[in-house]
Amino acid sequence: MRIDRILNNNVVIIKDENGEEQVVCGKGIAYKKKAGDLLSEKLINKVFVLKALLRNSIFRRLSLRFLWNIFRSRQRLWRCSHKHWKEN
User: Fold this and answer.
1) CB-facing half-sphere around the CA of 45: CA atoms within 13 A
2) Could you read off the pLDDT of 39-58 as tens digits, one per residue?
3) What is the CB-side half-sphere exposure of residue 83 using CA atoms within 13 A?
4) Please, are residues 36 and 46 in contact by the beta-carbon 8 Å criterion?
5) What angle do CA 11, 40, 35 make, to 5 degrees?
6) Which phi and psi (to 5°) does residue 46 adopt?
7) What global pTM score does this model have?
8) Quick check: 70 and 76 in contact, CB under 8 A?
């Protein structure tokens, strides 16, 4: 893992394999380190992950599904009205 930002000697922000930010804590974890340096997993005591990202991805999927359903409904409505106008 690479350090993205240093908050203090004991807390840093890293990016995981997916590019998502995580806050990691450990005694002296950032001592004599700078952004971009590798971080040993042995020094990490706690990891904090933003759960809002999970909620955000669920929200995105639901929003896309909702928009897709609206799109399909509008297509059906258009086809029905187009068919009706052709007949008349």
Assistant:
1) 8
2) 998 999 999 887 665 556 66
3) 6
4) no
5) 55
6) -135, 145
7) 0.56
8) no
